[in-house]
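Sequence in, structure out. Go.
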Amino acid sequence: MICISVAAFGQPFFDTASVKPADPKHRGTRMIDDPGTLMMNSASLLYCIVWAYDIKDYQVQGPDWIKTEIYDIIAKTETPVPGNVHKAMLQALLAERFKLTAHRETKDIPIYALAVGKNGPNFRASKTEGTPDIQSGRDGSLIGGKISMAKLADAISGPWMQRPVLDRTGLEGTYDLVLNPMPYLRDGPDGDGKPDMEYAIGRALQGLGLKLEPAKAPFEILVIDHVEKIPSRN
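Output:
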C-alpha cells in the first residue's frame, strides 16, 4: 500500500521540503523526479509553475521576475508516490512557501498559425510503419517520422517559440521531415545575446514549404493573483 500525506483540504503534500533561492552564478536548470524525491536546481519559479500545472510558458500570466529568479527545491515523501502526484504536491508547496494564488481564465493571446507557403509543401507523406516520433538531432534539428502537422506545430511551440503554434495547414495524414533552424541562427532583437529562434524556425520552415502567420486564438491561461519572491522559511 502506498501512503500519501494529504492536507486537510484533500491535496497531497511532501513530508519534507527545502525551498531556497539558488546561487545566481549557477545557470542551467537540473531536475530529478523520482518516486520519493523531487529535486529542482536553479529553477525559475515559472519553470516550477509550468511543470506543476502541466502547462506551457505562454499560458502563465504573472510578474516578470518569475522568469529570472531561480530557486533550489528538494522535496521528499516517506514512501514512493505514483504518476503525476508530485505535480499536485508541488502546487501545494508553491502555495505554502511562495503564497502563490492563481486562477484560470480563457483569453485571446498572440499565436502563430502554421500554414502552407505559396509553392506548397516540400516534404513527402510518410510510408513507414510504426508510431509517430520526433527526435532531436545532434545538429539541433527536429527529425519527425510519421508525424502530423498538428504534432509538428506542437513541437515547435515548446521551448523555442514565445507563443503557441497551431496547425492551419489543412494537410491531412502523416509525414517524414527534418526541420533544422541552426543554420539561420542570429542574435535576438533584445541585445541580450540570446539567439532569435523565432526567425531561425521561420526560415527553416520556408525550406519545407511552410510559413508562420501571426494571429490570435483563445487559450486557457493561469493568471497569478499573488506570489512572493522570497519563500517562507523551511
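Check: Residues 16-98 form one domain. The chain has two domains: 16-98, 108-219.
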